[in-house]
Structures are given as structure tokens and as C-alpha cells.
Amino acid sequence: MTSSIWAVVPAAGSGRRMASEVPKQYLVVNGVPILEYTLQALLACPDIRGVVVVLDPSDRRADLIASLSDPRVFTAIGGQERADSVLAGVQFLTPYAGSDDWVLVHDAARPCISVQTLRMLIDHAISNDVGTVLAQASTDTLKRISLNGRVTETLDRRVIWRAQTPQMFRRSDLELALSSALSEHLPITDESTAMELSGFPVSVLEGPATNIKVTLPIDLAFAEIILRQLAEENQL
Q1: How many distinct structural domains can be found in the chain?
Q2: Residue 207 per-residue DSSP state
Q3: Which band of pLDDT confidence, cut at 50, 70 and 90, is reported for residue 76?
Q4: Which of 47, 64, 131, 132 lies 20 to 30 Å from 6 when distance is taken between CA atoms?
């Protein structure tokens, strides 16, 4: 039986680094909330069977997101940390998804993902039968510093990659890895960290530099340019 592909979008965060009263997934770019762009991209990918958006239970801003009314979109209640919310989304899928189905986890505030990139990731993970992370090779010289701000080491940037999302894993493996990491109170900043700690292999696939995450105010300007360009390409 062919495995299905599902998406989980953790959107319960407050976006503290943006220093805004509005969580970053609800900031508006070109007149559209960031979360709406993200969901539209996922729903435009024909390989994805359904999307679980994980929200804060007190969140009323989500009522304005049109894509949440799409029949392929479900909502679940998030937790305190990202890993808690992703696990809630994965567990929500239990009645619908098989253990060998794939789950593609994508940041709510990473709106510039294209269908082409999504399909590239899906093809890579399935054809190699390995969990896969989109990432960017480092182009900067990287320094390790001490607590007093002194350089202690220059790292080999050839082996340093910056992880992006989506990150795609087998549903049962991801649930096990996240549950284990959370039960041991380990710091989990992305899904691949949990998978690595549980001993699962993780592959890296180079993603586009345009797949930015809106974290700081300057990122909004970059996202506006990229999304405009993607819209123009889709109209050709």
C-alpha cells in the first residue's frame, strides 16, 4: 500500500524575537498574513494529503486565515514549546495516518516555500527511504566563542549546514523520537534533533536561499520581495 504524506505546521508560538504584539505568523506581507501564504503553498502541493495546523487554544487571530476552512486542513491544540506542538500535531494524525506514512513539518513563519521545493524534498525522502531536512550550506566563516566573547575556534564551514524546514520523517519514527526527547527534557529546536538523538538517520537536501524564516523585522522586507517574485513566476 502506498504511504500518504501529511504536513504539520506548528503555529502556537508568540514570536518573541520579532518584538511585535502580533505573533509573526499573523504579520501581513503584501496584504496577506504569513500563515496564509504558508498554508496555500502546502495545499498547492498535490502530494500532501492533509495539513494539521497546531494553534494556541486562546488564538482568535486564526479565525481570519481563509485556508483553515479548507477540508484538507485540521487544527490541533499546541503546547508550550515547538516540540510539544509538533508532537501534538503528529498524534492528532493517529486516526487518519498509518505508521509508515510520512509527516512533513514546516514552520508557520516560513512562507516562501514553493511547490517545486516541496516536491523535490518529497521525492528525495521517499526514493532514499530516509528522513530528510532541507538545509543551506554555510557561506560565512564560522567562529566558536567563549562566554566573554573571545574566539576559541574557527569551524570548518564545509561541514556546517543551516537547517530549514520542511523536515520530513516517517510518522511513527517522528512520534517516538519527539516523545523520547520530551520525556528526557532534552532541548529540541527542530525535529531532526529529536531524530538524531533517537538514532534515526537524517539526510540533508540543499534548499533554496529564498526559503527564509520570518524571525526579525528585516525579514518581512525580504519575504515581500520573494513572495512577489514567486507570484509572478506562477502567472507565467
Answers
A1: 1
A2: P
A3: very high
A4: 64
Q: Are strands 161-170 and 131-137 parallel, antiparallel or unpaired?
A: antiparallel
Any bridge partners for residue 96, and if so which? none
> Quick one: DSSP state of residue 23?
-
Give me the domain span that covers residue 75.
Answer: 5-235
* Helix, strand, or coil (residue 114): coil
d(C-alpha 227, C-alpha 236), whole Å: 15
Residue 2 neighbours by CB under 8 Å, 6+ apart:
none
Q: What is the pLDDT of residue 222?
A: 95
Across the strands, what pairs with 105? 8, 167
Question: What does the pLDDT look like over 209-236, one tens digit per residue?
Answer: 999 999 988 999 999 999 999 888 875 4
Write down the mean pLDDT value for the chain: 93
CATH at residue 182: 3.90.550.10
- Per the structure block, which three cell numbers stand in for 90? 503528529
Instruction: Record the cell numbers describing residue 47, joined without a space.
Output: 502530494
Q: Grid coordinates representing 170?
A: 516517517
Rounded distance between C-alpha atoms, residue 3 and residue 101, angstroms: 5
Q: What is the pLDDT of residue 231?
A: 87
